[in-house]
C-alpha cells in the first residue's frame, strides 16, 4: 500500500525515528515514546486516509460523506435521527450537519421531520444514495480495506491495541452483561 504520488520516492530515513532521536538527545526521554506514538498514529492515519480518499474520488465522496451514507444504508429503513448519527460517527454536530448538507444537495440524503420531536431531524438515504454507497463500498473493500499492507494477524493485533488505547481514553465502555432470562 502506498499513499505517495507517482514519482515520489520513499524518504531515505524514517522522520519519526529521527524525531524520537532528537527527543532523546534533548533530554525528553520520558516523553519520547508518547511523541513517537502520536506522530506514528497521525502519519498512519494520513496514509490510510489518502488511500481511502483516492478510492472514493471517482464517486465524488469524501470518507465523511461515505460514512453517513453507509450508516444510513445499514439501518433497516434507511433512516436515522440526526442526533443518533452524530453519536455513532463520533464527530462534532457541526461537521455532521455540513456533511449532510452536501449529501442533500447531491440528492443522496433527505432531511425529514422527526415523527415525535418537533425540534429533531431524521436523515433518510435516497435510492441514488443507496446505489452510490453500495458501489463505493465494493470499491473500498476491493482497493483499500483488503489491501492494508499488513497480515491478518498484524491487523488484529493493531486493532486490539488501538481499541485498548481508545477504551482507556474513555472512548467507549465494555457492554454491560445481559442478565439471564428468568
Automatic annotation (TrEMBL):
Domain HTH marR-type intervals: 34-167
Entries under SUPFAM superfamilies matching the protein: Winged helix' DNA-binding domain (SSF46785)
Keywords associated with the record: DNA-binding, Transcription, Transcription regulation
Q: Name one Pfam family in it.
A: MarR_2
Q: Which residues form a coiled coil?
A: none
Annotated InterPro entries: HTH_MarR-typ (IPR000835), MarR/SlyA-like (IPR039422), Tscrpt_reg_MarR-type_CS (IPR023187), WH-like_DNA-bd_sf (IPR036388), WH_DNA-bd_sf (IPR036390)
Q: GO BP, one example?
A: response to stress
One MF annotation (Gene Ontology) recorded for this entry: DNA-binding transcription factor activity
Q: Which PANTHER family match?
A: TRANSCRIPTIONAL REGULATOR, MARR FAMILY, TRANSCRIPTIONAL REPRESSOR MPRA
Identify this protein by name. Answer: DNA-binding transcriptional regulator, MarR family
